[in-house]
Amino acid sequence: MNRRTFIKSGIAIAIVGTLPRLVLAAQPSEGFDYELIVAPADVNIVPGGSTPALSFNGGYPSPVIRAKQHQPIRIRVVNRLNEPTTIHWHGMRIPIGMDGVPFLSQPPIMPGDTFDYEFTPPDAGSFWYHPHMNSIEQLGKGLVGALIVDEAEKPDFDADLVLCMKNWHIKDDGSFTALTTPKNAFRMGTPGRVMTINGEMHPIYDVPAGGAIRVRLLNVDNTLVYDVTSTDSNAQIIAIDGNPIAEPVALTNHMTAPGMRLDLGVIAPSKVGETVTFKHKNKPMVTIKTVASQLENRRLPTLPLNPIPAPDLENAEAIKFAFEWNANITPIEKDGKINYNFWTMNRRSWEGMSKGNIPAPLAKLELGKTYLFELANLTQYHHPIHIHGHTFTVLKSNKKAITPFHTDTVLLGQNETVIAALVADNPGRWMYHCHIIEHLKTGFMGYVEVS
């Protein structure tokens, strides 16, 4: 898209320039809101050539799926890969049968088959979707997309930018480099070479001068922890990982790990041609640039809070989870093969699973009960810990001051221990893992069972 109309006070303001390429889903079958076709496709990321990616509906960025809070959405997934896949709706508190984890919650979608997902989002905010099979390759080659759940009463922003952050493992000619290497898999993960927003390197998006702008940054990367800053000292954090915060705070910097999302509120500069740039470690990621409008004296709208269940802290049960490596194994065998039991959760590496062969859960939780998860990172590397089907309430850390907030993905720093409350109100077997994909694939995954 290179043209967008912003409506304010009945006045249509034409905005011309480069805007996020928000791709509509293909025409769905009757009875479905969206149809996602999963298939190989060549995409253009670098000027030097095309990239043999995996795609949703034939391109990248993937379709931005928009749902509405408290209203059902139906999505048909068609698998045209030569391997099985599933789709996980990251951050969504939905029934287990719709969670998209092979064998644990649904059969894999085999080549040529379809699977129909249907759920009603209880929460509004910025979420995303991706496969949960052959994750290093399927996510790394492009099967990632934004799922935006609009509020029941939509806030009055003048522009809403959906920006997927992804580093591509590609050369200057567009061909792929290694998506993983043994050395990096046992450290911080294998970084990509080309930093993009919606598949473009440092794009510039036009916004109305003086307008109230919602900037949604979604980390759909396999590896990279983005350290987000802004050239606008008045930029406000208004939501973390899909959940609005009661009192927005000024953005100084915010560590946004794989799987995490950050919603920012910005009042665009009032003069035409002025810019605000969002950076990662002082490297420009994306810039917004003002164009003429008739907007004046705008303020940031207030986001309604999501209906996250309040934890019963007085009657909560504490459970400790230690995240570390297996000191008894060699990460790489003499023949060069990777040992997939390196990372551990409570000294267990993920055993893998198949039909009829599901490992024991890391913990069994009683439906409706509150738990205090003590999340202890006993390593020198960052680990974003993601829980399916639920939302944590982060209470405190041994490394920094915490204002309690809701999230589905808790970033643990080096030797950091975080206390997070969880109300086990969603029955099922829920995946629980590090969202650095190479860590997940080398042991850093398990599940909790709620019944």
From TrEMBL:
Keyword Signal listed: yes
Membrane-spanning intervals of the chain: none
Residues in Plastocyanin-like domain copies: 47-152, 341-450
Coiled coil: none
Gene3D superfamilies assigned: Cupredoxins - blue copper proteins (2.60.40.420)
Keywords: Signal
Record flagged with keyword Signal: yes
Signal peptide: 1-25
Domain of life where this protein originates: Bacteria
Stored InterPro entries: Cu-oxidase-like_N, Cu-oxidase_C, Cu-oxidase_fam, Cupredoxin
UniProt cross-references to SUPFAM superfamilies, sorted A to Z: Cupredoxins
Family matches, as Pfam families: Cu-oxidase_2 (PF07731), Cu-oxidase_3 (PF07732)
PANTHER family in the record: MULTI-COPPER OXIDASE, MULTICOPPER OXIDASE LPR1
Name the record gives this protein: Multicopper oxidase family protein
Organism of this sequence: Marinomonas maritima
Lineage: Bacteria, Pseudomonadati, Pseudomonadota, Gammaproteobacteria, Oceanospirillales
